[in-house]
Write a structure and sequence with these properties.
By secondary structure, the chain is α/β, with parallel strands linked by helices. Helix content is 33%, strand content 19%. The model has no long low-confidence stretch (mean pLDDT 94). The protein binds magnesium ion (MG) and zinc ion.
């Protein structure tokens, strides 16, 4: 009977060896210039669905009345999301790849493995005179938006992240996070500093038209309310307002829009929460695509930092005519995430590549 154990024993040790061999490997086949046949965009809108894997996107097909805006994209790629420290990334390292092109450790906000600050796409474009904006349904200090304008060693340092806002060069902020400006442990009033830097500070409601000045729109103390708690059309409307404002810049613009709470629905293993947030994000894609179609010089990119929840659209028991969404983790997963692109330069986003290549592709398209 001893022989019965040999094969399983070999298999188990092989699997152990194999899993031990799977480590983070970041290959750099980075794009440095774009062929002259490819038309370059003047503007880029990057929309990040935090925690949005392919099952989350598929939700738009099954739960939206009408055709999802995801289906308006003609170029699709896949992004490999591992961070430099972990096979499964968090949202800080997952956004730092988009903002700086560098894979770093989980928890890092636009700093490298040695906690050295990395220049962000917003800082670089802002220096070149382009307009820049950040819109999120979390606080603007949360990992994803923070990685575009702050440099701190840990994502939890919300008050320190906020100190980067006055000199960030970002022309338009919209989201939550008021308390980190005016109810700080160090007693500083960062709203006053923002005003001194030409920011109009708005905390009551989203304005109908953009201001001539920089804008800091903070409509919640911390994260924005959930869709189910009455957030309404904040995300599509803030995106519309940002586009109206930033497109006045003759040199072009870069706008980052985050559907932050798709991730939170995944962490909560709450399918209704996730679906409502995903559909709000899909609606926002419509705003970006409509603008780009009319504008003709704008590239729209939609992707995610990672998947959250191990979300699946499995059948309800044996009933294949019924979907019962389920989760396999309350954390993130290592599955590849989709990248959608539409507009000048979109073809660069075909294929399978490391997540940090998205930054290099965007910068190559901005290089004149
Ligand atoms: Mg996020
Ligand atoms: Zn998450």
């Amino acid at each position: 009977m001893k022989n019965n154990f040999i094969l399983p024993a070999i298999l188990v040790s092989f699997l152990f060896l194999f899993s031990a061999c799977v480590s983070v490997q970041v290959k750099h086949s980075t794009i440095s210039s774009v062929s002259s046949e490819i038309k370059k965009p003047k503007n880029i809108i990057l929309l990040v669905g935090d925690g949005m894997g392919l099952s989350q996107v598929s939700t738009a097909i099954y739960y939206k009345d009408g055709k999802p805006n995801f289906e308006r994209f003609h170029t699709i790629g896949l992004s490999k999301t591992s961070s430099a420290s972990d096979l499964i990334t968090d949202s800080a390292a997952g956004a730092t790849v988009f903002s700086t092109g560098k894979k770093t450790y989980n928890g890092a906000i636009a700093v490298d493995m040695d906690t050295i600050p990395l220049p962000t796409i917003i800082e670089q474009l802002s220096k070149r005179g382009l307009a820049t904006g950040i819109v999120a349904t979390s606080s603007i200090q949360h990992a994803t938006p923070a990685s575009f304008y702050a440099h701190v060693k840990s994502r939890r340092l919300y008050e320190e992240i906020t100190t980067f806002a006055p000199n960030s060069g970002v022309n338009f902020f919209a989201g939550g996070g008021l308390k980190f400006f005016n109810q700080r442990k160090d007693g500083k009033d960062l709203l006053a500093e923002m005003k001194a830097k030409d920011y109009e500070v708005i905390t009551d409601q989203l304005p109908k038209t953009p201001s001539e000045n920089n804008e800091l729109i903070l409509l919640a103390e911390d994260g924005m309310p959930k869709m189910s708690e009455g957030r309404g059309d904040f995300l599509p409307n803030a995106t519309k307002l940002a586009l109206e404002k930033l497109s006045k810049n003759e040199k072009g613009f870069f706008l980052m829009v985050e559907g932050s709470q798709i991730d939170w629905g995944g962490h909560d293993n709450d399918a209704n929460y996730l679906i409502a947030e995903l559909l709000d994000f899909d609606k926002t894609l419509g705003v970006a695509l409509d603008f780009a179609k009319q504008n003709g010089e704008t590239l729209v990119i939609v992707t995610a930092d990672h998947e959250t929840g191990g979300y699946t659209l499995a059948s309800d028991g044996k009933d294949y005519n019924k979907i019962k969404p389920s989760f396999s983790t309350s954390g993130h997963s290592g599955t590849m995430v989709p990248v959608f692109a539409e507009g000048p330069g979109a073809s660069l986003f075909n294929g399978i590549y490391e997540s940090n290549e998205i930054y290099h592709k965007m910068m190559a398209l901005f290089d004149k």
